[in-house]
Design a protein that fits this description.
Blueprint: H1 16-25, E1 30-34, E2 39-48, E3 55-60, E4 67-70, E5 74-78, H2 89-112
Antiparallel strand pairs: 1-2, 1-5, 2-3, 3-4
Length: about 120
């Protein structure tokens, strides 16, 4: 499951705190829609809901920042960026393990190159 494309409505069923937590865990850019109508596209890397004034922090899509946005200034958060982890974790793990096995096999084969096989041929 991915949140990519989700535009949550903050209401009795979905709180801003929940949406911010989902956005913090999301591995793609989001669009923070502020209460004044302005939008900030970026990657949320920090949030503090229990601070005296709750806030989140992000780097914008150009990599500038960090920018701090108080929760009171957020209308919603749209999950607009590509979810870079969606469906890839298992595939990436398998590919990495196959590469490690191939490298070990190549390294052990290289150790044998140029060696005298000995009397038993090994």
């Amino acid at each position: 499951m991915t949140l990519e494309g989700w535009v949550p409505q903050i209401n009795d069923y979905t709180s801003l705190r929940e949406v911010v937590d989902f956005a913090f865990d999301y591995r793609g850019n989001t669009t923070v829609v502020k209460t004044n109508g302005k939008e900030v596209v970026g990657y949320i890397f920090n949030r503090e809901a229990d601070a005296p004034e709750a806030f989140l922090q992000l780097f914008d899509e150009q990599g500038d920042g960090p920018f701090t946005i108080p929760y009171r200034d957020i209308a919603t958060i749209k999950f607009t960026g590509k979810d870079t982890a969606a469906g890839n974790s298992w595939k990436a793990w398998v590919e990495r393990k196959e590469m490690e096995r191939a490298l070990r096999a190549a390294a052990s084969g290289a150790d044998r190159v140029g060696r005298d096989p000995g009397p038993d041929g090994a």
